[in-house]
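Submission checklist for the structure archive. All mandatory fields must be present; incomplete records are returned to the submitter.

[x] Identifier: YesN4
[x] Organism: Paenibacillus mucilaginosus 3016
[x] Residue count: 529
[x] Sequence attached
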Amino acid sequence: MVHLLIVDDEIHAVEGIRSGVEWQKLGITSVFTAYNAKQAQEVFDRERVDIMLCDIEMPQATGLELAEWVRNNSPKTETIFLTCHADFKYAKQALQLGSLDYILKPIPFKELEKVILKAVEKIDKDSELIEFSQYGRFWFQHQPMLIERFWLDIITQTIPSNAEAVGRAAADRNIPYAAEMIFVPILISVQRWHKQLTLRDEKILEYALKNTAEEVLFGSRRDGQIISTGNGRLLAILSASSHTDFELTLRSLCEHYIDMCRQYFYCDLSCYIGDKVHGHGMFEMVNRLQLMEKNNVAYNNKVILSFELKQHPPANRLPDMELWGVMLKEGKGENVLEEAACYFERQMRIDALDANLLHQFYQNFQQMLYHMLQTKGIQAHQLFSDSISLELAANAIRTVTDTRSWMNHAVRKAMGYISAIEQSQSVIERVKHYIKLNIAKDLSREDIANYVFLNPDYLTRIFKKETGMAVSDYLFYERLKLAKELLAKTDMSIGAVASHIGYANFSHFSRMFKKYTNLNPNEYRQLHQ
């Protein structure tokens, strides 16, 4: 909408212009009038005036004086002078006051329409420049969902990474965009939550993180976009500033944001600040930030700028874990954990720890631990099948903090269970108790071994050493003993007795019972009741 003001001390001149121009065709939505400078100033106080048509010769204050006042109080207003004087002095002064044009009376309406159209086009162009300046404030407020989709398509390369394709995609979606616009991406990554969260809780907190990022990073300017990219990651895209302290300001804002998130949202997170890029350079820069995030395995709650990304030497810096394996076999689990902690501290001091090294360390340590468990007859997949072990293992290679949490849990659980096994009496008692509780089930030797996290052959060896019989034999005799009691002391049917001790097949139960008692179940009942 463009608003226009006609200022002339001659009423018939004002009305002539008002009725002689096709305002709607020119894009003018409102036409105001004033007959002197004071009335014009009152209009400016009440309304927005985009174009002023102003006579130069007026009583009280001239049009030139009014134009000077307008330049100071409404600098975006375009002024067009109307005058009877062809004096160059007036024209020169009008130009010095920033007027758009200078038209002589009597006014030819076609010429006036051309000049007004020129003013409207200038206003539109200036409006676009304003949108693309001041950090692109309007750009980010315009159609936020479309703009978010636009950026997602760029960083997934649905829109190719070249200036022409990006500009064409913006135009197709009616998104205000200029190839000259410059942006800074910030990748925000949640490293861990400090409390147990349901999926719903996590979604609510991620929404809170997003809103807080908008408040802290953009403030009242709203000159950016926050995009959720999934897996606890947000991408903030800000319109870049040319101020020399821009990076320092961003770092300070990100540090404040991290502090707030730690305090209120129970999480550790880090921020990775990219370089200034054009829209078509966003894909490459975001990829670089993702690499920074992947390789930041050493630090929590940190702000890292893109130029701080370091190339780590390819030298093999893994510790020799053979000694650690011997220490674990000897029950020195805490010593192994101390050695590992010292190793990580040394690598962090020289900034030599990255995702690849951490992953290799994890694989080697896990292999060493599982091999040691195997020599003890313990099945790792059973020992670590609980939800806590599975969750810690799933996050183990994200950061050093997560790796150490997994190591502490795994080593201490393994050492505790090895200690229990070495006191084999307690394991045997647990097996016997388990059989007693589950005697009605179709138990196998493997089921029983899994219950105590042992290899079936290893369990059979220690069980036979302790009891003089194999696990399967012990299970059978316990079932036989219970069947005898039920037949002698209850009126349960023989089929019910068979089912109660884990035999689904009545005939098989009868055959096995007679084999070991020389009586079939019915004969045994008649003899003992």
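[x] Structure attached
Curator remark: The CA atoms of residues 89 and 155 lie 58 Å apart. The chain has a mean pLDDT of 86.
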